[in-house]
Design the sequence.
């Protein structure tokens, strides 16, 4: 287990270096101009001299490799640079926002895994039954629904029609203090939407996995020995049926990040996602690079977690991968 | 093990959700429209754009009215200049190159430290410093030196006589004792500003909201609206939804969504007049668009009224130049009536003959050119399509294409662009950069490469004198020249629409620029609001 983890960490170093260089290269090749983005509407009336001066001040007139190397070396010394689009140090940008994104994504992910497993097991128990047909149909429909659209729908239904939940923000719009209760009530809708957008994958995989497991010889044997259906389902079928789900948990991380991006936008959630969009369209190199490192790390950790869980759940799988 | 805390969180969420439901249920019965039991001294408004920074040194609030800060001067409801941190309008020397401001006594920044002339000098000098990343510094191009004379007098010396200079001194003054001690481009001050204005910033949660509280020691008297919040909601529909649910007290909305609040008894709709125009650039470097006959034909061949009615839902007016028809600077008699027959005759007379496909040509040049608009801007797209369809009736083919500024900019010397702009403070601000031939192709200035010696002369004459009649005469010349040789087709001036709860009484709006500043809209003077309890 430690060997697997250690190898993955070693592997992460070149991956991260390549990814950040890729980001710099793509950003440099993109048609977006960091100076235009920085200047905004003021750039429309600025003289060419002032725009050139701005280009020099922002350091975006230097060659790609120099910029990347400077960023990398100072990042390794703990200086992540300054975000040009948000006019503050990158460390501050990330620090202010990442907690809220993690809260949102973790809540949604947990809800999706738990609810997805429960529904998947229920559907698998009697394949072809009305519950199975309903759950599968809803899952397929949701799979096709973009989180952005789901978000607007949820705001319309729960905030506007029912007046039950706040439509956006971290706390009530009029207040300035952040209390746990307020955050909790504001978290419900965005987390639910994000969870629902992840849910179909878990439902369908668990249904499939547990369904197959129920057909396997050991499980049939257990049933034949007269064990209670409940024990067979939870104790035997679920355990081997969950294996594909564990892999899925890791592979869903990128999807979760992009989903969170859209959901945060709809609900004005002050997380990292909005900053990512801004950083990308403004070619804000330091911020973009830092956020890419974070996203890559999240994906690598997701995969590692999936493999570790897989190994724990099924002793036949070794940790040499 | 993992399950238990999650259950706990769900329970907390459920309880919180219930309590919110209870609070929300009591709201629809009341006619006050106070969102979610909010105190009458609080106001929450929804805005579409968030500033990049709150530091005046980087350009925040440069057009005045910034809530956290004050400038030397400010604007009243009619956009007339009046003193703010200065005690009176500036004394201007006879040659128009020295501006002297006397400063108000006893003003303090919200941290308690006194304001003085050195803060003014610091602010202007920092903005003009090459190392400061202020993209608007071109606007202060005229400034040569800024000097403090004692604690209460500031003297500006200009490089050239610049009549509208006083309009530039509405820009907010930053405290040297705070902003002077940090990196001007990325320091704390860019997000945690301290000023002399009617409000202080409590918290800026980027992407979510800005919360302000009344500055009790404000020199102009403490505001009645004690807590003021600007919620950042980029999506128009979501903003309208949150306004309807009572979460917001007011919001800026596009015309179609604003119309849905017409029958709402406890809300009022305000249409702010603006200088915000939409215009088609007709670049001189294009063989078709650069031809005076084509320009004149398009100028009278487009149906501006139809654009106002169908694209703006009536919330706007026809534009014949950068100056709106209801401005005192507008030159009467330069309105163009929509006249297809006359437009066709102009083209016929100039030798543009219709070909088999109905598109005109002259000496082998087809009357055809591309028109670009900014991707994703529906208003510009609608204008561009309407313009192309009007042009087609004249036998001119306009191919409408969309792109980002990065795509459009290199094409500007040859291709037409659906552009926008507008600055109400002084006619010089728009017209000089739009029409001066020496600024052709300088950044986004004079995008049409317009070149007209009489206009150049009038623009210079207008900034060299502060005699109102002589300035008016010069701008009359410019507007009349634009009829004879239009380098642009001005289409519409767009009203900005706001819907606000009526518990704040009857509100006013200022004449607004193209930019949606934070303090645009009925909340331009929120410090003067008298909310009903």
Sequence:
């Amino acid at each position: 287990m430690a060997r697997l983890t250690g190898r993955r960490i070693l592997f992460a170093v070149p991956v991260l270096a390549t990814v950040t260089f890729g980001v710099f290269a793509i950003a440099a090749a993109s048609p977006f101009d960091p100076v235009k983005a920085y200047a905004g509407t003021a750039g429309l009336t600025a003289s060419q001299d002032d725009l050139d001066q701005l280009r020099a001040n922002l350091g975006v007139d230097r060659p790609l490799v120099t910029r990347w190397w400077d960023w990398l070396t100072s990042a390794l010394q703990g200086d992540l640079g300054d975000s040009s689009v948000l006019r503050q140090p990158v460390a501050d940008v990330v620090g202010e926002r990442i907690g809220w994104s993690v809260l949102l994504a973790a809540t949604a992910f947990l809800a999706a895994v738990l609810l997805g497993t429960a529904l998947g097991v229920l559907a698998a128990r009697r394949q072809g039954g009305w519950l199975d047909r309903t759950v599968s149909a809803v899952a397929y429909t949701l799979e096709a629904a973009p989180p952005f659209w789901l978000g607007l729908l949820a705001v319309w239904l729960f905030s506007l029609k029912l007046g039950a939940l706040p439509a956006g923000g971290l706390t009530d719009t009029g207040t300035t203090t952040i209390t746990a209760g307020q955050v909790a009530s504001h978290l419900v809708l965005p987390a639910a939407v994000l969870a629902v957008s992840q849910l179909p994958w878990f439902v369908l995989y668990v249904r499939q996995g547990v369904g197959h497991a129920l057909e396997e010889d050991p499980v049939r044997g257990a049933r034949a020995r007269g064990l209670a259906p409940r024990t067979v389902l939870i104790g035997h079928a679920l355990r081997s049926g969950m294996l594909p789900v564990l892999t899925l948990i890791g592979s869903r991380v990128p999807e979760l990040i992009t989903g969170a991006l859209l959901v945060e936008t709809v609900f004005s959630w002050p997380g990292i996602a909005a900053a990512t969009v801004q950083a990308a369209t403004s070619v804000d190199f330091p911020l973009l690079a830092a956020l890419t490192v974070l996203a890559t790390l999240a994906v690598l950790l997701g995969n590692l977690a999936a493999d570790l869980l897989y190994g724990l759940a099924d002793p036949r799988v070794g940790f040499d991968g | 093990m993992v399950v238990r805390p999650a259950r706990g969180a769900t329970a907390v969420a459920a309880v919180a959700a219930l309590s919110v439901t209870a609070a929300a249920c009591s709201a629809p019965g009341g006619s006050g429209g106070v969102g979610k039991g909010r105190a009458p001294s609080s106001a929450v408004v929804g805005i579409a754009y968030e500033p990049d920074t709150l530091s005046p040194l980087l350009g925040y609030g440069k057009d005045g009215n910034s809530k956290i800060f004050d400038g030397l001067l400010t604007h009243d409801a009619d956009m007339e200049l009046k003193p703010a941190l200065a005690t009176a309008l500036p004394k201007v020397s006879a040659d128009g190159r020295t501006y002297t401001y006397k400063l108000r006594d006893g003003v303090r920044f919200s941290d308690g430290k006194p304001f003085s002339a050195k803060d003014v000098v610091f602010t202007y000098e920092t903005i003009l410093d090459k190392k400061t990343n202020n993209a608007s510094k071109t606007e202060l191009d005229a400034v040569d030196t800024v000097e403090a004379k004692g604690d209460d007098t500031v003297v500006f010396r200009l490089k050239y006589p610049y009549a509208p200079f006083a309009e530039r001194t509405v820009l907010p003054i930053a405290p040297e004792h705070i902003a002077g001690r940090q990196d001007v481009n990325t320091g704390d001050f860019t997000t945690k500003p301290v000023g002399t204005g009617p409000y202080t910033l409590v918290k800026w949660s980027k992407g979510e909201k800005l919360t302000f509280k009344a500055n009790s020691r404000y020199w102009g008297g403490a505001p009645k609206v004690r807590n003021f919040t600007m919620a950042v909601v980029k999506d128009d529909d979501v903003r309208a939804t949150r306004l309807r649910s009572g979460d917001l007290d007011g919001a800026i909305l596009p015309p179609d969504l604003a119309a849905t609040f017409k029958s709402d008894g406890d809300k009022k709709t305000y249409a702010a007049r603006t200088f915000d125009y939409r215009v088609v650039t007709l670049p001189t470097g294009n063989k078709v668009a650069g031809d005076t006959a084509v320009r004149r034909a398009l100028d009278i061949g487009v149906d501006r009224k139809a654009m106002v009615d169908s694209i703006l839902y009536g919330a706007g007016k026809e534009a014949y130049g950068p100056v709106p028809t209801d401005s005192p600077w507008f030159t009467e008699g330069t309105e163009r009536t929509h006249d297809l027959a006359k437009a066709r005759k102009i083209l016929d007379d100039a030798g543009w003959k219709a070909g088999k496909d109905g598109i005109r040509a002259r000496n082998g040049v087809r009357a055809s050119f591309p028109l670009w608009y900014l991707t994703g801007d529906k208003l510009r797209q609608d204008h561009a399509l309407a313009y192309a369809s009007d042009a087609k009736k004249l036998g001119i083919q306009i191919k409408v294409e969309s792109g980002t500024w990065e795509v459009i900019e290199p094409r500007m010397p040859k291709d037409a662009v659906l552009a926008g702009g507008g600055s109400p403070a002084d006619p010089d601000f728009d017209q000089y950069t739009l029409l001066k031939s020496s600024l052709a192709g300088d950044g986004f200035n004079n995008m049409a490469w317009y070149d007209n010696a009489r206009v150049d002369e009038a623009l210079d004459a207008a900034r060299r004198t502060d005699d109102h009649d002589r300035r008016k005469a010069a701008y009359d010349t410019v507007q009349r020249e634009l009829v004879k040789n239009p380098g642009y087709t001005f289409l519409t001036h767009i009203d900005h629409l706001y819907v606000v709860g009526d518990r704040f009484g009857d509100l006013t709006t200022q004449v607004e620029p193209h930019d949606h500043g934070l303090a645009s809209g009925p909340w331009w003077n929120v410090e003067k609001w008298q909310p009903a309890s």
About this structure: Chain B touches chain A through 79 residues (CB under 8 Å). Confidence is low (pLDDT under 50) at residues 1-35 of chain B.
